Amino acid sequence: MKRGAGHPSTGPAGPGRRFAAIALIGAALLLAAVLSLGVGYYALTPLQVVQAIGSRLGLYHGEVLPQALTVVFRSRMPRIIASVLIGGALSVSGAAYQGMFKNPLVAPEILGVAAGAGLGASIAIAGGFPYYMTQVFAFVFGLAVVLIAYLISGRTTQLPTVSLVLAGVMLKTLCTSAISMIKYVADPTDALPAITFWLMGSLNKVTWDSLRFSLPMMAAGFLVLHLMRWRINLLTLDDEEAISLGANPRRDRIMVVVAATVLSAAAVCLGGIIEWVGFMIPHIARMLFGSEYKYIVPASTLLGALFLLAADGLARSLLVMELPLSVLTSFVGAPFFIFLILRRTGRG
Amino acid sequence: MKRSLCTLAVLLCMVALVLLPACSGPAQSGGEDGDQLELVDMAGRSVVLQAPGADIKVGSTSPVAAYLIYTVNPDKLLGWNYALNDLERSHILPAYHDLTVYGMGEGLNSEAIIAAAPHFNLYISDKLDEAAVADADQLQQSMDIPVLVVSGKLKDTAEAYRLLGRAMGEEQKAEELAAYAERILSSVDAVDIPAEERVRIYYGNGPLSLETAPQGSTSSQVIDMVDGDNVAKLELGSGNRIEISLEQVLSWDPEVIVVNGEPKQGLSGNSAAEQLLADPGWADVSAIQNGRVYGSPKAPFSWIDRPTGPNRLIGLVWLAEILYPEAYGFDLDQEVNSFYQLFYHETLTDEQRNGLYLD
Amino acid sequence: MGFLTPSAGSVTLGGEEIDRIPKRQLAHRIAYIPQRHTPVFTYTVREVVTMGRASHFGAFSSPRGVDHAEVECALARLGLSESADRMFAQLSGGQQQLALIARAIVQQAGLLLMDEPTASLDYHNAMQVLELVGELAQDGYGVLLSTHSPEHPFAYADRVLLMKQGRVLGFDTPEQTLTSENLLSAYGVDMDIVTMRDRHGAQRRICLPVRRAPAGEGEVW
Q1: Of A227, B217, B247, C127, whose CB neighbour count within 10 A is largest?
Q2: Is the pTM here over 0.90, yes or no?
Q3: Facing residues of B202 across strands?
Q4: What chain A residue is nearest to C63 in terms of C-alpha separation?
């Protein structure tokens, strides 16, 4: 929102205004979601969208093309819900990771969740399993990689955060090599393009069933992070300082890692690997609301949802062929990253 | 607190939205009135279609499905899955060159297909397992258009055509195609060359012809069926394009070489063959020394390799004549004429037919 | 604080061994004020002070009305109400210390542990902080403060623990502990302890390092 009088040393506006701002973003999200139902190859005006929804709810009894109903409810609605959930999940887990690792340059991919999920998905696709198995494999492998990273880091003597990151990076590299190998021997007609597309992120294959698989886990993850949103502030302090204030950073950190990881794994297994969202959105939230996680958690969630909703809208309507999501998010994310770095060095 | 209430509200909305369509989907696969056709497709799925009329369109979820529909009746083809290249255009009837392109694989444009409202979608796959069924079901669900699954295996061609013919209302034409396929396939089956007499053949792909399809792979199907002995027997069997080295070829020392060229670089099979004949590195290979290097014809579709459709039937004849002319006794020119007439709706002149081998 | 394990002996608080007390309870009794607070992320002063309330509710809760009230109270008491919305990092060193003290106050612990609170402060701010410490002591807080200055204890302390390189040189009232001999051992500097009265008539003690008489000169004064 607006900084007080544009003075650099004044913090963000008071709590009342900040909540209002967050509510505003939420409202914008809802509006965008409804409008989004009209976006795509099969063009629908907002009026037609409303008519379709109304007719489905039994409120509207006028003429509605069956194709319009199919497009809205079968084709687009699952995608829109998925983009909202995934955008929110990646962003809030990114915010949580950044706080937890006391490093604003961290993204949810850092512990290897995405790479592990990619490996799982590649195995499932190359192995010719039915598509829902791809989701299951991706989820399980994603969590497994983070668990292994955690176990490895537990055995080192370095700072827990540093060792976790190192273990994560190492496992990420391992997974990526394995994925390359799988791609090399995969059938170039169907398996290989499917794997490649998955690795770049696509909501093309989202169905109501795949949503039902991911939703409970995402709900749990969202809930935990939402409840712990103020505690994350304490995680940004030194462990000693946090303990002296009466917190239990070790236990809190574990809970946040688990929640954020489950969220990211559920998000990645639904829509493939979508980069930069988890890194970029928390920064934007911070620019608007300051560092207080009480606001960052809901703000990141909503902003991320809005962002990915817009990105997916573009992905399916920009060209006749479907664009992978990572392509779009990277186009925005990478320059943003550069802008951030320049800004920081400019200040320092 | 306000915040918790808001979040809770949002979560509830999401849950509601998810459960909403679980109640019922817009029920329609066949029409409200008119005859209905109940079929069991080749994956065992029961599919209900409306009785096919004369002006229906049939969609394809992959390129090979489109070819199949084209061979039965090009007027009923909804569109292609990718833009045709020049080679394909040279033998596809001009009227159908510029049909709408609907994408393939992950890039299949569901909404465009929904908008075009085809009678049904054809789904073709070599493996008719749970994965294929799940995939077909998902496509049917998300577009609300029936999906008919047929087998892509060469030996199932006749059955596939008969089923497709019923679904499209083109039983007669489909029967002709099926009969042709059966004749070729049973002729090939009837001849069994004993192991010691099998000709060792190397099948090369790519700009240097050093990518091969191992024995047992999809791309090697035609070779295996005419009892050619594919020299490439590799461990990682599912791949269709394995990179090997020249050394490997020299150690295998095949008697016959068939090369595909590289369509993406405009290298025709014929040119690739000439390349090998002129290449000193290959000079020691028996096939080169005996001049038994053949470029595979590819217009409009490859005779022996992908696409994995009925285009390969003529490849069986061609390869049989190269490897075992006495054993099979096909009249190649005659067969090529019949094939192109039946499947591609073209009457070839002698010149055109000879030109096929140069492409 | 329970961070280091004693190599010998034990640390008790109110008769209980520190190690036995759960950390969250410990926070209700001891508050730690670090010398410096440099977090990675920029928080406002109010947000920093609010973090002191952490031990008053569970991990799944956020600060409630009563917490905010305490925070406002502490800010007002330390004169930080107007700066409450500014970024912590923007404040002067002295004000940052005050904010950290406010954070300790909202923790509602009885004992305040301060690690060289005046070390990086200018003279004015240092005096301000010390005044505050004195007031807090008057209000009933226990204060354990570490310092390098031999004079501070005279002004404000009831007891002094004088240490050098891990050895205890004295633990008693300032008058008893801070003698010339002890200070010479501790600092290696010769000092006189001078008692005098300030302008208000209160008795004060100061440390006066003795200047070595310059060679060849007699008494100048």
Answers
A1: B217
A2: no
A3: B257
A4: A230
